[in-house]
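Hello K.,

You asked for the raw outputs rather than the summary table, so here they are, unedited. I folded two proteins back to back in the same session to keep the settings identical. This is the first:
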Amino acid sequence: MCGVTIAIKGLIIKSEAVERLFDRIAIFSSQGKWEKAENIIDMLIVAKPWDKRLLLAKAKLRKKMWIASGHEDHTLLEEALQLFSRCHLLTGSIEAGINSAILLLLSGRKKEAYKRADDTARHCRLLIMENETHELGYYAATIAEVNLLRGRIEAAESWYKTALSKNNRVSDEVLDNMNLLLDHLVLEPDMAVRIREAVGA
């Protein structure tokens, strides 16, 4: 989406304006103004219905709404899951893959969650083998998330450390996913501490 001019109902919106709209989405989302953020996303999706960045933005917004509900609104959870799954199906997005796997697990669909997570990890390893080094830290963090989802604590710890060594920090979204998984999994306290230390939390 970055650097792309789009047309909405005959109105041309240049790439700089599109980026400003994404800035507004981020601001509204951080303020909990969900409807305003979603209105902008939906306006852009009309012009670019298969755009990965837009599909992810809508899915991540719904996930934030679910988290803000204290994990109580199961309708929001299901909507976020469906949006991430659709994005993964249409674009092959790794981010959509791991998020949908996590939400599948949290909604009680362990078998589906494991399959989606394993598929996503394979995708990451393939990209690492193809020397996609500029995203190595993110791929490592995603593989860590897959291992944590699977309950493979030592492997998760190792991959989180690799991710941290590549980027000096992991993203807030990776931390959010880690916390969601740690809240869901039944771990010994020292295991949870090790995972948090591995990401510098």
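The second followed immediately with the same parameters:
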Amino acid sequence: MPPPIDTVLGVSISLPGRAVVFDYGEVISFTPSPEDRARLVAASGGPAEAFWAAYDADRDALDQGLLPTTDYWIGIGAALGFDWDIPQAQLMWSLDFRGWTTADPEVVRVITDLDAGDTRLALLSNAARDYGTPFRHSPIGELFEHVFVSGELLLLKPDPAIYRHAADVLGLRPEDLVFIDNREKNVRGAESIGITGHVYTDPASLRAFLESLA
């Protein structure tokens, strides 16, 4: 049995003059599990295919800050033929939030090793604005110099403007940023303005990539 995560000793990773910018969902956090997805469908009371179609239909508008969170969930209920109230919307939001925020300790360890090496850190996530506070004020959030949430910026990855905004706020040239995301199109968007990108697949490959830059 592996030791608890807090007893595992990491090795610092130092990238002087650069900042590493992480995506959150499916990079820092695990992919929502089949059990997480099943709980959402069961709580919706509708068939899985119809639920996921409604879930995806307005997700970009939610993540870009163009659709309020409550309206998003009540809209899903309406698409399924239900008149959801606030308690039902809150239940759905809570189940969804859990699925997208359960962190992978191995990735968190990579981030703490970067912090130990005095590497600047930031977060850039396509997420609704209600994710901003937990992203900033969770234990790992305190390691990020800046947290950029698409729903607050009214921009979505892979729009080059969102990466330029991050570089400007960090006071760095794009070529001094390293961007980590699990979606290739988002990495390519960052690379289009000169940022060094890495398509995330697993913690070991992430660590090897970052150590290759040190």
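Residues 6 and 109 are 9 Å apart (CA to CA).

Happy to rerun anything if the numbers look odd on your end.

Regards,
P.
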